[in-house]
Amino acid sequence: MSKIKGVNTTPEIALRKALWTAGIRYRKNVNTMPGKPDIVIAKIKLTIFVDSEFFHGYNWNEKKTKIKTNRDYWIPKIERNMQRDKEVNEFLTANGWTVLRFWSKDVEKNLETCVATIQEAIIAKQLADNT
After folding, report:
1. Is 15:39 a contact under the CB 8 Å cutoff?
2. How far is it, in rounded angstroms, from Cα 107 to Cα 103?
3. Strand order through the sheet with 46-51
């Protein structure tokens, strides 16, 4: 467990580098915000999370049955993580923030698509702010 990184994971770094290359400036790992977003673009109120599949419950109904060791610990922990993600999304959205969440495998396999999604969200926020 001590080897598992919570910040600066390989997918996070790849996404940040791609955003920087695209000319998008941001703050990283903002621990003063709920959920400690991986990437924050504060001037347009956009938060981006890169979630690992295991800890955030990707395809949870199927994966839950495959956990064989220490089920009494992992199942409640991951379900609480999923609930916390939902609470953070609701709180940030209620306070005017746009929340984008990407699975780490999607960032690794479809980096350009993730960057395009972020660019579209930025344009949409800027258009909404100008009206």
Report:
1. yes
2. 7
3. 27-28, 39-41, 46-51, 98-103
For the record, the structure tokens of 69 come out as 């060791």
Q: CA nearest 49: which of 128, 125, 118?
A: 118
More confident residue, 4 or 116: 116
Encoded tokens for 75: 């199942």
Q: Which of 58, 12, 64, 60 is nearest to 39 (CA)?
A: 12
Closest listed residue to residue 84, CA positions, set 95, 96, 94, 76:
76
Q: How confident is the model at residue 128 (pLDDT cuts 50, 70, 90)?
A: confident
Q: Which domains does the chain have, with CATH numbers?
A: 21-130 (3.40.960.10)
Whether the pTM exceeds 0.85: the reply is yes
Distance between CA atoms of residues 90 and 109, nearest Å: 28
**Widest CA span in the chain:** 54
